[in-house]
Amino acid sequence: MVLQYLRGKSYLQTREDFQNPGSIWPPTTLILHFSVNRIQNQRKMGLCTELNILCLFGLWLMLLLGLSSSLPLCTDSTAPLTPKQPLTFCPYNGKVCCSSFKDFQLQRQFQSMNISDPACASIMKSILCANCDQFAAQLFETGSKPTRRVPVLCNSTISACSTQSSSAANNFCGKVWDTCFNVSMNYSPVTPSLEDSYGEPSSSTFSKLTDQWNSKSDFCEVHGGASGYDSVCFAGDPVSLNNNSTVIPPSGLCLEKVSNVTYTHMVGHPDGSNRVFLTDQIGRIWLATVPKMGSGETLVPTLFLDLSDKVYSDYLLGLMGIAFHPNFVQNGRFFVSFNCNKTKWGGCSGKCSCNSDVNCNPSNFTSTYGFPPCNYYSVISEFTANGTASAPSLATVGNPLEVRRIFSMGLPFENNHGGQILFGPSDGYLYLMMGDGGGYGDPYNFAQNKKSLLGKIMRFNVDEIPSATQINELGLWGNYSIPKDNAVYEDYELLPEIWALGLRNPWRCAFDPKRPSYFLCADDGEDTYEEVDLITKGGNYGWRVYEGPVPFNPSQSPGGNTSAYSINPIFPVMGYYHSSVNQNLNSRGAPGGDSGGAAIIGGYYYRSWTDPCMYGRYIYADFYGEAIWAGTENPENSGNFTSNLIPFGCAYDSPIQCSIIPGSPIPDLGYIYSVGEDNNKDVYIFTNSGTYRIVDPSRCNYICSNVNSAAVAGPSNCR
User: Fold this and answer.
1) What burial letters (b/e) apply to 677-703, b meaning 16+ CB within 10 Å?
2) How many whole angstroms separate alpha carbon 499 and alpha carbon 453?
């Protein structure tokens, strides 16, 4: 069986979102827009609905707790934008965290400060304009403590691990004091009191720094800070990173074959042991112990749970993913994402994604696959390992009885339904990656429709479950609640489940375990381009207005079109054109012919030291098994990536010998279905010919020197 015949887009990154008017005092509380019905529904749920400082402060803290911001990110966790109109007050170009309206607000705020001294006025203007910096989330420390009204001012301390330019070595905090300590200003943002840190000071009072601070050292103890590996500071100008390293790609990727069995997904056991859970497409979950590197042993799994009576499996459908609750070791909860057929299983039911809210009439719907819409469903079910052993971590079998239905949605077509699920490492919420529902070119434009869940990444709270009455009143698709910091709080037109939109068929996403703010998703393209996207809150990734960086012209549009000018797309950070790979697919009996065919398979940030030259790079592959890439961020923490095709081979001492493509030195992997990771952060490749693991490059006679490794990833103690 072939799982998911995929497609996608890729490169660069821009975004403008028309920011809603809000407070001009950093880190501005949001002016939330709700319809009367939304407010009433949230009140029924007991959610915060009063537009006051305390309420919004609570919502803001829910967003900020535990986040690590080590890439360009705004204080509201959205991606920086490239404004369609240049800023006129703040001297920032390119990707910024201000719209023209916010720029005007900052200008008004600066004017209200009424600073008479030109030198001090210039410094205070630069401090206000730091709100527009593409690294605003780091400058205002949104990830570790209540957000500051003043950015972290460089105090001349710079870590050896810092990726920031040499300007961070300047004592800008001292310069602020020396220039402004005896200058009167109104509404000073550098007040020592935290009581007004989340909005405009409550009264208009002229003051000097010396009225509020005893000394320069006191002032800089609060407002000063250093630049480190995953932190930046403000030196008076837009933050810039060093870009003086040369990307040295690995000489090759060495694989060993550890199983002849085809799996589609892997999750490390939540107890942190060397055990893993594996899934296959027909609906079975397996438990196995990972063989020790170099032992010559193979994966020998035992059956943990068989759901094949519920799962409908064929060419494009089946068990799509599993995710274990962050507290599984104590509560035994785990979740399975799969497809079902309502004519084959009585439990296959739910709301149809083709409905009047999205301009789709099922009675007029024409399917190219010969079945009516919503015959097949995308389902997330909760199961438990409780009761099968003295403790969940000791369970070797799962309970086959469904605890509850988390999500269920009828699909318009058979293809492009994604289905991966995973828990966010910082927030503990469940993410669901959903495709556009299929059909050529997303004919109903679901991916851009903010009232459709197709072509979206969704985010659920599965710890707070509403009553059945509340679920019905709120129009939810299952047993979950809405996280209080989902993207709807910035864009009230979105369905509340949505975290990101504009995706065609996301196939394998992963958070970087070292930097959880890095969330990469491979998105399968249509005819031209395969892409990797850096996912951020509320981000629109362009499909079907764009296929990667290329404008897409749909052949049919019964659901209407979206204009390119009306959206602010975030373009891919990595990817490849179909024409660049797989030029001779006919020789392998695959579709695509000599024109090239492609389907991206997303992977992981490689965080194992088994291959030091791969450490810190993002691995992704093509479905047809002849191309694997390593994406390297350069400079680090910039969000800019360089991709390199890398050779790969099979270890001479592989536990199972690999087949070789005739006339080629590379192993015949067959079709790559997915990529997995164990608790040691070793990475596996799952194909129709078996399961492969990345091993020490020397076992394939590839060379990895310490110099090469350091040149790519920096000092080991920084990582």
Assistant:
1) bbbbbbbbbbbebbbbbbbbbebbebe
2) 10
> Which residues in 282-352 belong to E strands, given as ranges?
284-289, 302-306, 319-324, 333-341, 351-352
The span from the first CA to the last CA of the chain, in angstroms, equals 40
In angstroms, what is the C-alpha Rg of the chain?
26
Quick one: tokens of 616?
A: 């810190």
The pLDDT confidence band at residue 597, using thresholds 50, 70 and 90, is low
Peptide bond into 635 cis (omega under 30): yes
| 135/635 Cα distance (integer angstroms) | 14
Report in angstroms the alpha-carbon separations of 220 from 85, 175, 195, 606.
36, 10, 19, 38
CB 522 within 8 A of CB 506: yes
Q: Tokens 């039911």 — which residue?
A: 349
**pLDDT higher than 90, residue 263:** yes
User: In 153-252, where do the E strands start and end?
Assistant: 153-158, 185-186, 206-207, 224-227
- Number of residues in the chain: 719
Residue 656: CB partners within 8 Å, gap ≥ 6? 257, 258, 259, 260, 298, 690
Report d(CA 344, CA 528) in Å as an integer: 36
The string of pLDDT tens digits covering residues 430-474 is 999 999 999 999 999 999 999 999 999 999 999 999 999 999 999
CA distance 317 to 378: 9
Q: In the chain, helix, strand, coil percent, each to 5?
A: 20, 25, 55
